[in-house]
């Protein structure tokens, strides 16, 4: 599926930032993909969600946003697709309900993971492991940007198909993380 060039340009303009950015690995880069700037623009978020709807398998029972970048995308995608949403915390809540997954129930259901950027695939794999322990069937992950750093292949080895809206090359900035 081809993303309209005008939408790619809007994503690039809103989310591709220049400066000195530190990654969790300690690496410093000069360009960064900031999904929060995309999510903060209601019209852009709506249009991205409308494109992402095409990546949702028809038998999906729930969209699960991965904390934190996947949450606004999952909400917008849920509104655009009519598929209920759930939200995965990095760790189980230490008070109240003590849940790690909030929103729509996931046990025994076909769920699609939603995240902003996939690099190595580690975050999606951790999320899938939690959901699978809860009885969810996880076969698809959706993201806005696949950084082409091996994440898709790593997910495929765990029987998860990565369905990105864009690859890094589509943004025209090879180093934007």
TrEMBL record:
InterPro entries linked: OPRT, PRTase-like, PRTase_dom
Positions of orotate binding: 147
Domain of life where this protein originates: Bacteria
SUPFAM superfamilies listed in its UniProt record: PRTase-like (SSF53271)
Ranges for domain Phosphoribosyltransferase: 44-147
Top-level EC class as recorded in UniProt: transferase
Catalytic activity: orotidine 5'-phosphate + diphosphate = orotate + 5-phospho-alpha-D-ribose 1-diphosphate
EC number annotated for this UniProt entry: 2.4.2.10
Pathway recorded for this protein: Pyrimidine metabolism; UMP biosynthesis via de novo pathway; UMP from orotate: step 1/2
Binding site residues for 5-phospho-alpha-D-ribose 1-diphosphate: 89, 93, 115-123
Gene3D superfamilies with a match to the protein in the record: 3.40.50.2020
UniProtKB keywords: Glycosyltransferase, Magnesium, Pyrimidine biosynthesis, Transferase
Cofactor(s) listed in the protein's UniProt record: Mg(2+)
Similarity remark: Belongs to the purine/pyrimidine phosphoribosyltransferase family. PyrE subfamily.
Record text on subunit structure and interactions: Homodimer.
Role this protein plays: Catalyzes the transfer of a ribosyl phosphate group from 5-phosphoribose 1-diphosphate to orotate, leading to the formation of orotidine monophosphate (OMP).
Protein name: Orotate phosphoribosyltransferase
Gene name, Swiss-Prot/TrEMBL: pyrE
């Amino acid at each position: 599926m081809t993303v309209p060039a005008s939408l790619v340009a809007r994503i690039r303009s809103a989310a591709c930032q220049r400066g000195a950015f530190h990654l969790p690995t300690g690496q410093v880069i000069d360009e960064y993909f900031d999904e929060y700037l995309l999510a903060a623009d209601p019209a852009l978020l709506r249009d991205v969600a409308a494109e992402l709807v095409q990546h949702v398998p028809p038998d999906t029972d729930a969209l699960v946003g991965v904390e934190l970048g996947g949450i606004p995308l999952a909400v917008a995608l849920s509104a655009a697709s009519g598929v209920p949403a759930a939200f995965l915390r990095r760790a189980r809540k230490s008070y109240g309900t003590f849940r790690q997954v909030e929103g729509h129930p996931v046990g025994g259901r076909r769920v699609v993971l939603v995240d902003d950027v996939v690099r190595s695939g580690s975050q999606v794999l951790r999320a899938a492991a939690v959901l699978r322990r809860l009885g969810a069937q996880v076969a698809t992950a959706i993201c806005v940007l696949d950084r082409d750093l091996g994440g898709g292949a790593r997910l495929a080895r765990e029987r998860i198909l990565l369905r990105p809206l864009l690859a890094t090359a589509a943004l025209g900035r090879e180093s934007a993380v």
